[in-house]
TrEMBL record:
This is 2-oxoglutarate dehydrogenase E1 component. It comes from Pseudomonas matsuisoli. Signal peptide: none annotated. The lineage of its organism: Bacteria, Pseudomonadati, Pseudomonadota, Gammaproteobacteria, Pseudomonadales. It catalyses: N(6)-[(R)-lipoyl]-L-lysyl-[protein] + 2-oxoglutarate + H(+) = N(6)-[(R)-S(8)-succinyldihydrolipoyl]-L-lysyl-[protein] + CO2. GO terms for cellular component: cytosol; oxoglutarate dehydrogenase complex.
Amino acid sequence: MQESDMQRMWSSAHLSGGNAAYVEELYELYLHDPNTVPEEWRTYFQKLPANGSAAATDVSHSTVRDQFVLLAKNQRRAQPVSAGSVSSEHEKKQVEVLRLIHAHRLQGHQVAKLDPLGLAQRPVPTDLSLYSYSLTDSDLDTTFRTGGLAIGKEEATLREILQALQETYCRTIGSEFTHIVDSSQREWFQQRLESVRGRPNYSSEIKGHLLERLTAAEGLEKYLGTKYPGTKRFGLEGGESLIPMLDEIIQRSGSYGTKEVVIGMAHRGRLNVLVNTFGKNPRDLFDEFEGKKVEGLSSGDVKYHQGFSSNVMTQGGEVHLALAFNPSHLEIVSPVVEGSVRARQDRRGDVSGDKVLPVSIHGDAAFAGQGVVMETFQMSQTRGYKTGGTVHIVINNQVGFTTSRQDDARSTEYATDVAKMIQAPILHVNGDDPEAVLFVTQLAIDYRMQFKRDVVIDLVCYRRRGHNEADEPSGTQPLMYQQIAKQRTTREQYADALVQTSALAQDAVQARIDEYRDALDNGLHVVKSLVKEPNKELFVDWRPYLGHAWTARHDTRFDLKTLQELSNKLLAVPEGVVVQRQVSKIIEDRQKMAAGGLPINWGFAETMAYATLLFEGHPVRMTGQDIGRGTFSHRHAVLHNQKDGAAYVPLQNLFEGQPRFDIYDSYLSEEAVVAFEYGYATTTPNALVIWEAQFGDFANGAQVVMDQFISSGEHKWGRLCGLTMLLPHGYEGQGPEHSSARLERYLQLCAEQNIQVCVPTTPAQVYHMLRRQVIRPLRKPLVVLTPKSLLRHKAAVSTLEDLADGSFQTVIGEIDAIEAAKVERLILCSGKVYYDLLDKRRNEGREDIAIVRIEQLYPFPEDDLTEILAPYSNLKHVVWCQEEPMNQGAWYCSQHHMRRVIAAHDSSLFLEYAGRAASASPAVGYASLHAEQQEKLLQDAFTV
């Protein structure tokens, strides 16, 4: 049947009546041998839901699909013989045959021909031998029941069964799926693999397209190698099958209705993907090779770290492609991709993950070696981070830099074994068999779309050159590179095979090579499906946030009456929701705060910041360990019903049609979670995106994200991000691990107004700071050192008027009525120590000392500090006081800013230090010693 006939059938009869009967007959043929039905029907049948349920938008197909599933069950589910019922010799052997079938499904991959170089020598497992099952050659022509082996018949000779097993599981595809607990998923793989014996019949058109994609992959590398010899490009030579694989991922997912594909990858093959998959103009790439500077970036980055986006056309419509920017920290891009995908799905209301697909491309050494891989897998099915399944591609060069010995590279059989922790199926494939690569790619996409889970493709290939084009690999891998020197390319081997089988003429092969070379010479786009005038609705609109200079202030006021109305809605606990006693007291206190009967504390002000932003149309997303309650029990944004444990989130129930408010307690990870939230924030400019550390020092585990993305992403890649990080910080005598958020590390990263570092000390300050972060059309990461003891400190309070009419103050001057002319000592500080200094000053009745808080340490507010210092004309001492040791905290990174302001005020003044002595540890672990040090630093502030 021609495709046009098939389309007419869909539109005219909706698979009803006589057409439905015809389709059922086709499906029976498909179940018997998929290669006997036309390719368009085979593709359609492959996409049918595994459980037979119809999609919500496809109700007209539901009846036939139910019939399909019934047919499938009748065809493939022969009941195995139980050991207890075996009576004859033949039946005993029948049981052994079933065990042989299971062994091949379980271990066939161990003898599959996966290595294109043929160097990997692995012993044949005894479980794959006939002789391990009381079977001999004399049984080969005996007929046995196939026991669910999907080869189109219920009985076959042992010879046929063994041949089917070897062809399915022991050729150039090695499949691992028997570790999956869900039997429907295992049966799905068995049917799909066994029915075509691991090798579907592809049309000449598809084979020609495969060759064209391989020609493009090889052609670019050869062209660059000739034009820029010895220049680093981290070429794809040896792994060219990645390009047709990505092409199939995009086209097949597009046929499912996917609208966006987000790809993350390290540098191996990245330039090839940019040109041959994303359609980057080769001339632009050549300019980068020749050192052309990208306008608007102060530092820029090497070409094989750059991201890109474009639109391509598929059978299902236009698809937007996004390649994430990535530093040399390899796997750290994986959770960034997941965050970007989740943001896109949330924006589309794509709960199931059908519309946006994440694809992560890994190297084998990094996949096995880097812990963030495990962290990213762990988030794959969690509420706050799942994206409907990720397609993972491992470009398995069988060598990491210069490490190729397996007992040096990992402790597992395969680099991909870590994926088994979430029961992800793993499809190993020989990269020199393009049709096998195409088949596993189709399997991977269909599995992901049907089961919404991660799947891994292990593309076993090789690295024709060294780690980079200037490297000489034979010094460390002599035998491997002796073979590589003799190895014909994937394209050459496949082209010869097509010519030998008359699928393609020799002159057509050369024509493809010439056509691609001519396109490169002329600087033309080489992706034929590229959309030249893309649908802009598929893009995130960043225009309102571009071109804004740094500004500290923005109008964050909010109508007082509306503020109180929002508070009343938040505090109205629905009938039937029984809150815990302490939580009930918090709600009662907040009701008094909203009425003006109690001073406002931190928890109330923070919650009202979120409520007012939602009211003004801004989504809010919050994640972190214990973020719902708050580590120090101050937030309680999620109420837990004491009757049934159900969660009620008041901020999700403010008003009909409100923006999203998402809050998730994260799993115990920092690196992957912060990277995820960075990816989310870079894709959702109008939202407040927050990650909160349980304790500030926990963020240490995500330092690579701070260094490579948060602090430098704008200047390397032009990538804006408004991520907010809340890091509890303050010396409370809790030892070295729970005192310091390592403020100095963030300040050290500050330059060119890249990030904001704030230490708010009042509820009103946190309220206006959070509102400023979203309302101001400037997207800069915000690092906030939040308090612990100040959450309930009697002096750390604000008023309703402070929230309604105030603004964020980068510097807060003296609050007591102290005459400026009498002040001889000025103490500068940030954070909790302010309240300790204030208590000491008040207790001692000192009127010659003024205390000034610097609430924003970067960008440093020199103008605001200058203004506050102006009235103090009789200063003799200016002191910076901090709780942290001298080599930590703000002292080293911020003193030059303060000195500049002080010198301009009075050149005779010198900035002095009061704080803990330099220390290798952030804090002491003994309460008595902590108290002693705290008293001394306060005294020093008053006397040095």
